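#lab-general

N.A. 3:47 PM
ok so I finally got the sequence cleaned up, no stray characters, all 303 residues accounted for. can someone with queue access submit it? mine expired

B.Y. 3:52 PM
send it over

N.A. 3:53 PM
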Amino acid sequence: MKVFLTTFLALTFYATLSAGAQDSTITASHYRIYGKNGEVMRIEELVQQMRAADVVFLGEEHNDPVAHYLQFELLKALFEADKARPIVLAMEQFERDTQEVLDLYLAGKIRERDLKLDSRPWTNYDTDYKPMIEFAKTNRIPVIAGNAPRRFVSLTGREGIVALNSLPKIAKQWFPPLPLHPASAAYGQKFNAEMERQMGAAHNNPKMLEAQNLRDATMGWSVAQALKQYKKALVVHINGVFHSESALGTPEQVMHYHKKARIFTVTMHAGMGFPEYKPSEHQHLGDVLILTDPSLPRTDKRN
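B.Y. 4:20 PM
back already:
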C-alpha cells in the first residue's frame, strides 16, 4: 500500500508540473538538461537529484527568460515533492540590509509598493523574480536576502577589503565577520580572465576580486546561517551563473562556513551551442548543465 501511495503521489505531482508548463510560452523545446557526464535528463530526474542536497544553486544569466522560468518551476517542484521538509529561498537579488522589509512583505504586513520602495529590487523584478517571491509568500517559504549591500561592495572595489575594517559595528552586521575567507586560486583566475575578456585589456586589479569575493562570502555566509536556523531545510539559492559555476565562488564560501553542507549546482547558460552538449566546453560546469534557447527576447536590457 505504501509503495502504491508513493507512486500515485509522484505521478500526480509530475502530471501537475507538466500541466503548468503547458500554460507558458516557454516549453521543453527551449531548454535541454544535461547530467555530469553529458547524459540528457528529464526535469523529474533533476528534481530528485536536487532533493538529496542541503543547498541547490540555480545559476542564471540575469536576462535569460528560460532560466527564470525554470527557477520558478524547480522551486515549486521541490516544495510539492516533500511538504514535510522545509524549503528556504535565498537570493542574490536582495541585499542583507533589506531582510526586515522582505520579511514584513512576506508576512502581509506591508504593501508591494513599500517592498519595492525599500528593498531596492532589480529592474527585472516583476518579470523574473516576483513570481518566486509571491509563491514563497503564499506558501510561507522563508526568503533570505543574501547579498552584500552595494555600498560596501563599491567601497571594497575602490579601496580594497581593508576598508571594511574601519566601518562602525552597525555597518559590519551586513557581511561576514572579518577577515573574509579569500577567493580560491581557481576562482581568482577565472574572475580575472572574465574581466580581461570584458574590458579588452590585461586585468589584474586585486580590489575588484576582493569586491567580488565580498559578494560570494556574504551569500555563502547567509546560506550557512539559514542552514543553522532552519534544521534539515533545503536552501534554494538564486544567483548569477558566475557565482556558482563549476562549484566555485559562493559554493566554496558555503563550505567555509558550513563544512558538512551537501551542495548541488545547476548551471544555466543561454546559447553555448544550444541545444547540443560539447564535452570540451560543457563538462565540469556544474552537477547539471541546462542549455537554454538564446533566441527568446531578453528580460533585462542591462545584460
